Task: structure prediction
Amino acid sequence: MSVNNEFQPTIVAFCCNWCSYAGADLSGTNRLQYPANVKIIRIPCSCRLNPMFILRAFQRGADGVILCGCHPGDCHYTTGNYYARRRMTLLFSMLDYLGIERDRTRVEWVSAAEGAKFAATMNDFAATIHKLGPNRRLEDLRCRKD
Amino acid sequence: MQRVGVFVCWCGSNIAATVDVEKVAEVLGQEPGVVFSTHYQYMCSQSGQELIQNAIREHSLTGVVVCSCSPRMHENTFRKTCEKAGLNPYMVEIANIREQCSWIHKNKEEATQKAVILGRAAIAKVHLNAPLTAGTSPVKKRALVIGGGIAGIQTALDIADAGFEVDIVEKEPTIGGKMTQIDKTFPTLDCAACILTPKMVDAAQNEKIKIYSYSEVQSVKGFVGNFRVTIKKKARYVDETKCTGCGLCTEKCPQKKVPNAFNLGLDQRRAIYIPFAQAVPKIATIDADYCTMLKTGKCGVCSKVCTAGAIDYKQTDRFIEEEYGAIVVATGFNPIKLDQYDEFAYSQSPDVVTSLEFERLMNAAGPTGGTLLRPSDGTHPKTIVFVQCVGSRCDDSKGKSYCSKICCMYTAKHAMLCREKYPDTDVYVFYIDVRTPGKNFDEFYRRAVEEYGVHYVKGMVGKVVPENGKLKVQASDLLGNRQLHIDADMVVLAAAIEPDKSARPLATMLTASMDTNDFFTEAHPKLRPVESPTAGIFLSGACQGPKDIPETVAQASAAAAKVIGLLAKDSLICNPCTAAPDELMCNGCSSCEKVCPYGAITYIDKEFRGPNRTTLVRRVAQVNPAVCQGCGACTVACPSGAMDLKGFSNKQIMAEVDAICR
Result:
């Protein structure tokens, strides 16, 4: 963990139940590989994602957080991903203000049929985080277990 | 804290090959609150389920974590298992260690470590789970079928047979769809109209079926069991109750220069028309784009000749509201536009036609009365070249990546019919592969080659050049390793098929998902092929993927069976994972109400105990659990954190985050 060339990032992916989680399942069904650092949390809709959860993840030592939802216009709940998009825009501007690297957080639209896109997105995001190195600014050292 | 049992599934070798299941069970067994941990070959099998049930009873488990395949696959299975053992079904959490772990990682150590972390997250979540009880909502016992082609007709007939009322909404003036334009069907070569039109009449005469022709779905609200649909009945300027379908107006109308859409523009019709003789309902429709009366206010011939007095130039679009328990999508397909394929000279020569146009040229009710004549000069073609896969199996952006599935068979049919009717014609078919999986399909294709002497050439046509009334076809013969130059009289292009353009906006209205090609996706590609992932929406026919007629009819009946299963219930179990406010924290600000897409949130004035034996009246939010679909938009909008979502509460999600990040 401590040496940079052995850096194994922790990446949290929030996936909406209807599109992106199914897309993640599809990339599994098609045996499309992406790094094991990516751990998925299932939420009913991208609009369920409270930006607080992202900050919580960073506080607890996550190095990257990605939110995946249905493509705009395809939300199972009609408008959920529009809310998610606005909230994430606000969060991004807040993170910019705090001086946190923009690339640590990402929003991506992945449909249930886009298994390949899901795997490609995760590979790309993991590579980006790997390049950025560990998250130091937002990690709360008091939360460290070791 | 719950008494948690952890059950790690091998899924045969699907999980066990890349995840050390024993180690996962051992490590998770040491997590706080876990009192039992085991692994088993197939947790979803009967003995696996019994193992879970026995463990629940023996160890008095209050929470269950199953590390297995995706919850989209077996969450319900394990919920039912636990319910039978006396545990609340919502005390189960699934850690997805197959689709999201064992199947995507090759390194066993890494995969095992990830499986442990996913298991920990599920354990952390289940500790905060609360027993939930699902409510029920009533089912409106009426179905809507969108699209009146063979798929929609078959679905409607089957649902009506079971005794439920069905409405068909068809955007054209008549039901019947693409099959009405087809001459013969493969592989039996029986006449399409002879098998379709009796079904159309059946549908029209069935008292349980109501047909809204020349109508479109305008909006869809509600949810499974309780859809509220607005149907737009487009103005056809003819009173449906009065028109007898005599057809006199369609003969007398002076506006004769309207391209006949039914014959794909190969001939012309009048501005008032009945698409074809067997149309159902047989009612005239005025084409507002061409009618002189509607455009200039001067004419009125149809109104003068109509003995029934059915013409009504002042008719406007009408909107009808109906309630349905289930909706079947049967919007079908269209051949793609060939603008991008100018190498085949489709726009340059009228003798280059699509297969559907060729179908009309061969049809006894078509523009040539069933005699195959060149559209340019009305002569018999002597050499005909068929080109397959025009826009199908394309690796560039102008075509479709998929196989359109029906083209190999209908091209064989066309080639065979040509040779049968006109034995002196030379027929060439250029193909990439000939695909004939289906009952009696390969025999049919071989008959075309062996008995009818159709020249099948493996290779693609590179260019078609119209020259002196002929079509110069340049093609490659891959097996003969040579270039071919054919002077053809007619070229027939097997255009790829794509979903109807109305499908995309409809999918948005229904919140049903689509794939990148705009075909509707099914809830599960193998196990739930006729259901959309959205509850209460069913799929029938080519809107779900390219299909021939027998497959379409089979899927239509399958969809009907699913609808009947739904409508036979008096009430449906609702999703109990709904939003609920903490009234003590709620300040009645209305933020949640504004973001709710279902209007599930209302406000009431409620009395609370204040200081010194006083009572306070405060405005607080209330969620109607029968209407709430559990998206969670309100939980994030709530500034005081009063609103939370059952089953996906703030604490549960944060516990998962903590477990993954630690």
In short: Chain A touches chain B through 53 residues (CB under 8 Å). Strands of chain A lie at 11-16, 38-43, 64-69, 105-109.
